[in-house]
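Q: Predict the bound structure with iron/sulfur cluster.
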Amino acid sequence: MADALSPAQAEVLALLRQRHRPRPEVEVTLAAGLRQRMESALAALAAGLVTPLFIGKSHLTQVHACEAHHQALRAQPFAWSMATARGSVAHRAIELSLHRRDRAAPLVLVDDALNRLEDDPGTSLADFLTGLDEGARAELRSEVNDLVAKFCELWPPLARQWAPRTESRVRAELCDDRLQLGGTIDLALGAASGMTPGSVLVELKSGASSSVHLDDLRFYALLETLRVGVPPLRVACYYLDSGTFTVEEVDADVLDAALLRTVGGAQRILELALGLRTASATPSRACSWCPLRCACPSVWTAGGDDPER
Ligand code: SF4
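A: Predicted complex:
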């Protein structure tokens, strides 16, 4: 089968397998130790919550970038946009590509995904999709088709024994379930064998690479470790526009970095939610889409110095 792969597909296969790398077993106490560290750092703050608080990857990214921006977004009800709908439809189409017995063309997969999501009555995504006018729907269909066509072109067929899972939910409940950490992994492959890591977590991205993407994957690796008791073998971000990977082996240092960032972010989110202090404002490119930009004295403007450069 390998002979039939394009160079890009062969590269993906080689990066996912990496059979030459050692796979040392992890201690059976690893997950319990991580949980204990997180709970002891967060328990006092979590005790002040009246209702459970959910924290996902975007909450952590926001609060680390600008607390005021995070607070403003927390106060807004979730609403679908073309960008968020594009990701959900693309992931559903890719999921269908992995499980259909025929090798359907990308546009067939996209239409199948759109029809299924629109026919899911009562969901907010169905309401959003059915409310699009013909032009906006065509635009969405075209953009999703581009992503799905790239995935089909660049990724090799995924063997059943790799147990591919798309839109795989991961969740950890801490501090008597007061804190709920969670998210959805675009693509998970493989599984641990005993205490030997074996899974690979993949995020599929359009656009340019960002260090935040690796932070997101480390967060998922931490949650997966708490869930399974064994960490993933590696995490990878795959950029569909360029056909390139960012790959990281998950070891004790990676889990430690993920824990410190998650705990630090969760502490800030809890302090703000409990009204223990005022949110600070830190200008960045996020000012461009921040709901506070008109009134914020710290806002970064295009004419000023870019603090992220
Ligand atoms: S405009 Fe910029 S600095 Fe001000 S709250 Fe929003 S993201 Fe933060």
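A: Residues 218 and 257 are 8 Å apart (CA to CA).
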